[in-house]
Design the sequence.
């Protein structure tokens, strides 16, 4: 049975009043996409490829500010492997770069005290005044899982994924997956994984991945991510972006976790773009720190509960006494960097 709560209905009502604000913020974004069927009149929020990233200081746009919408207070991840190109039964058998296994392992390790990377996003919250930049314990904070946040995976082998799916087709698959899992609401993130060789419209040339929200079959909100087969994009979407050293990380598939982590963090803080936390230019927490290759906030290999992964840094408003900056580890407001 799909979930529908007073909080979900309140958030949906509040978002309706934010449509004009969200549209204005997105107009300032570097890339715009048509809203998927069933979604609000907003554009999906994309991560630009390394080859098209705009060279600008991460401080451009200032700190993130609260837009009045929701954040994810109890993160729960569901992954759908879209199409029989992944395999014809219930097990993934066609994954030449090992994306599915790496992605799953990455998210299974983003929890508890052993994850001092995504923990930085717990400084952001909902239920405070619009324009707030420091929650300081007020409102309801972004949640950080105490244990593995992946609640389910599903190989949808009943169909063949389109060779060049549109945003509306991706949204429809997210809704189908939510029905399969029996979930909906702002604390859910459905990740739609396209198989090797499938190129969603705009992938490689305009974006590496994007996140958005749509409406589940029960009318509740549904955050989801369009996750193409990232290794197909090579260096444009993160391959060999970070020096791996003796970490055991495979440089060819670094983009899976760099891009996947980017979208996860932005879903946590802005599940319905752009009504959550964005800066004055419309950039989200991952955008402000994407493709940093040196200096403060450079992408790096981090240990998450004993396993190593390549990640980008995330924006922290309370870094450097409130000046803000990109950080790859966060234990507390006084222990981050």
Sequence:
């Amino acid at each position: 049975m799909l979930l529908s709560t007073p909080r979900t209905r309140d958030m949906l009502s509040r978002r309706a009043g934010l449509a004009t604000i969200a549209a204005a913020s997105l107009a300032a974004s570097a890339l715009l996409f048509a809203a998927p069927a069933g979604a609000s009149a907003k554009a999906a929020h994309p991560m630009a490829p390394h080859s098209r990233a705009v060279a600008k200081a991460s401080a451009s746009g200032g700190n993130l500010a609260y837009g009045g919408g929701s954040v994810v207070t109890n993160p729960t991840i569901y992954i759908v492997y879209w199409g029989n190109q992944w395999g014809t039964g219930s097990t993934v058998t066609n994954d030449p770069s090992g994306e599915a296994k790496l992605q799953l392992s990455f998210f299974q390790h983003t929890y508890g005290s052993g994850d001092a990377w995504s923990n930085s996003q717990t400084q952001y919250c909902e239920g405070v005044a619009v324009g707030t930049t420091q929650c300081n314990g007020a409102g309801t904070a972004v949640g950080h899982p105490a244990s593995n946040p992946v609640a389910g995976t599903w190989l949808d082998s009943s169909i063949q994924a389109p060779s060049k799916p549109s945003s509306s087709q991706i949204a429809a698959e997210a809704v189908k997956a939510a029905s399969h899992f029996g979930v909906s609401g702002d604390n859910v993130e459905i990740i739609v994984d396209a198989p090797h060789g499938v190129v969603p419209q705009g992938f490689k040339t305009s974006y590496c991945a994007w996140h958005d929200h749509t409406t589940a079959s029960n009318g509740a909100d549904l955050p989801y991510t369009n996750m193409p087969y990232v290794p197909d994009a090579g260096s444009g979407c993160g391959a060999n972006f970070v020096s791996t050293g003796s970490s055991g990380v495979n440089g060819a598939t670094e983009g899976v976790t760099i891009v996947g982590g980017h979208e996860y963090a932005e879903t946590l803080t802005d599940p319905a773009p752009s009504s959550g936390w964005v800066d004055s230019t419309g950039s989200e927490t991952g955008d402000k720190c994407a493709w940093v290759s040196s200096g403060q906030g450079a992408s790096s290999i981090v240990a998450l509960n004993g396993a190593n992964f390549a990640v980008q840094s995330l924006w922290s408003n309370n870094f450097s006494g409130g000046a803000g900056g990109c950080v790859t580890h966060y234990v507390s407001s006084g222990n981050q960097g």
Observations:
- The CA atoms of residues 36 and 171 lie 6 Å apart.
- The chain has one domain: 6-336.
- Helices lie at 6-17, 19-27, 99-108, 167-181, 254-269.
- Confidence is low (pLDDT under 50) at residues 1-42.
